[in-house]
TrEMBL record:
InterPro entries: DGQHR-contain_dom (IPR017601), DNA_S_mod_DndB (IPR017642)
Pfam families named among the record's database cross-references: DndB
Organism: Micromonospora wenchangensis
Entry protein name: DGQHR domain-containing protein
Amino acid sequence: MFFAEMGLTQHDSLTAAQQAASEAASASGGRSFTCVVFQQGGRLMLTTAFSNAFLINHVVAEPAAKGGNPRMATNRPMDTTHVRAISKYLVENERNYILPPVTLNVRSVPAIHVPRGNFATTVGFVVIGDETKFSVTDGQHRLAAISRAKDFLSDPDSTFMGDSVSVVIVVEPDLARIHQDFADAAQTKQIPASLLAAFNTREPLNRVLTKIVDGSTLFRSRIDETSKSLSKNSPAIFLLNQVRGMVKELLFRDYALSESSIPARSNQVIGTTERQDAFVERTLSMMEMLTTHMTPWQAIAELPTSGGPANQVVDYRKHYINMTATGLVIIGHVAYEIEKNPDPGWRTDQYLRLSTKIDWRRDAEIWQGAIISGDKISTTRAPGRLAAKRVMAAIGLPAADVVEGAPQGAEPLLRVEI
């Protein structure tokens, strides 16, 4: 009954509906698309797939002007930086990418042919003429990126424009309701940084990160890879994103390097499989040395990863700097300086000193006035850098003298300064 009320043309069979749509498309110079027709929230909706070429020709972007009145447009202002980022992703991964569905709007019901029946959902055929234009409810940046990407594809035999994107089409003439649809569609839950790091292995930094976690005696099965924050009573020792901060220090000497800068920097420093493997090997060597000799890491490595004894981690976290994200960053910063030296024996000696000569307890004098003030631990850059300088001085490692005395003919440095 709903489909009839919405003006859809009903037929005695699916074959009859398909034939009628094909004839209508031929007569009007349009195209017939197989679709699923359904009702949602009292409105008629369709879902189908359109090729990239079709989307470019039939979807009209109506973004609001920055500083203008957004109520007169169908979508928010266009973020050109976001468009460039998506376009770059598409060009670089032309044969291995994914784009989520986009939501389009059409103001009036197009010609839709469906089989007759009392169905809540049915297969149908929608006829779209050359004059039919859609506006964007959700996905304008993806569509703009598709249009931009086609101009940067160098392969003349590229099939990119023939690729398709799943679309949901909402029949809605009311501009205010279109705005509300956009606001409703934007109510998505942000992916925790740790989970994103675990899943997004297209990024070289995340590839080496997961290998380090899996290969480390201390980290293996003790890292929370899904949560946004670490519960006070969690037996996990760190979030994956906290370990990622240490790895960023090891690679770039900057745990706070912006996410937009990481791909280019990663490609320069660990852009090849060989460099990634070498970095993982040296980092795991460092981790094993620290885990064997550093308090309380060596004790934690002996604990089971679950059950009552694993809860000792909670107590260690209360009392030790190297059980915090700040401590990991300090270790990464000092290790960055140590790794500048090409002599593996010298590096091993320095990691042994880092493990045994530093008092990692929170109440140790070395941390007071740097990252510890009263019973609070600072998580900002300047106090962390001050604490790292104190650690380097304590183990006899002034930053300017790190590579002095390196033997001739030693193995080449892994890291490339940028």
